[in-house]
Design goal:
Bound molecules: zinc ion
Number of helices: 8
Structural class: alpha/beta
CATH class: Alpha Beta
Helix content: 25-40%
Oligomer: single chain
CATH topology: Metallo-beta-lactamase, Chain A
Largest sheet: 7 strands, mixed
Number of domains: 1
Number of strands: 12
Length: about 260
């Protein structure tokens, strides 16, 4: 669907993933490439049905469902935060094993095979804090506001359209995922994202339907509340059970956040 002028979002049933396409004059930008090479090829074919323009790829963070489908897009520039490259080098093979096993246990050997066969592409254009692109003459800003959902969340802002691709810093339809998160730092990253937006802007989460600024402000309050609980438990001022009871999120999400915030 077109969420703003020549900014498209495609939602997939698998993991309810949302990917993006920003079109300029004579160039386009693909935001995330899906979870394996076969899925990436399917996405590339869909983009090709919409535009023949050369593409650039940007990866919002290193998690496999956003980054493993890049191979079919080559040769092209692949942008990401610098921690994304590190994470894919250090953790990519392990992630393939983990998710292939998980899909096999779920009775889905096809997708498990696809993940195992995937050749992970390392991003070759790295962002530290901020970088700008001209996508067919259209300005796109990529920004990293510190660690949050992952070590390498990169927000993609299309100022002329009032659209921000949030990666998994914002989640719609499920609680935010804390498995690789930095719970105490996450609110600051969302603050940075909110600083890019105004009323009427569209924020595209990594999973689920696009949302408005009010949704992100509400989610920010929730992750800040959970960060506060994590701090109180870490300081010994609160029992885990009380944090679970007071948390805005389900018990498993809260326990994952508590564990992550206690890790060095
Ligand atoms: Zn993620």
């Amino acid at each position: 669907m077109e969420v703003a002028d020549r900014v498209l979002v495609r939602r997939y049933a698998e993991l309810d993933l949302s990917v993006g396409l920003v079109m300029g004059d004579g160039g386009c930008l693909v935001v995330d490439t899906r979870g394996d090479e076969r899925q990436g090829a399917e996405l590339a074919a869909e983009v090709r049905r919409i535009t023949r323009d050369p593409w650039t790829v940007v990866i919002t963070h290193s998690h496999f469902d956003h980054s493993f489908g890049t191979r079919p897009f080559l040769e092209c520039a692949v942008w990401a935060q610098e921690g994304c490259r590190t994470d894919l080098i250090e953790g990519g093979a392990g992630t393939k094993d983990t998710w292939a096993r998980r899909y096999r246990e779920e009775g889905r050997p096809g997708i498990a095979d696809d993940i195992e066969k995937t050749d992970i592409v390392l991003p070759d254009h790295l962002v530290t804090d901020r970088a700008e692109l001209a996508v067919g003459g259209r300005r796109v800003v990529m920004a990293h506001f510190g660690r949050g959902h992952s070590s390498n969340d990169l927000v993609v802002h299309v100022p002329d359209a009032g659209v921000v691709f949030a990666g998994d810093l914002v989640e719609n339809g499920a609680p935010p995922a804390y498995g690789d998160a930095y719970p105490l730092e996450w609110p600051t990253a969302v603050d940075g994202l909110l600083g890019l937006t105004g009323d009427g802007d569209v924020i595209v989460p990594g999973h689920g339907d696009p949302v408005d600024r009010a949704f992100v402000i509400a989610q920010h309050a929730e992750i800040a509340a959970l960060a506060g609980l994590c701090e109180e438990v870490a300081a010994g001022w609160m029992h885990v059970q009380d944090a679970v009871r007071l948390s805005p999120y389900p018990e498993d999400t809260t326990r994952t956040a508590l564990r992550r915030s206690a890790e060095p």
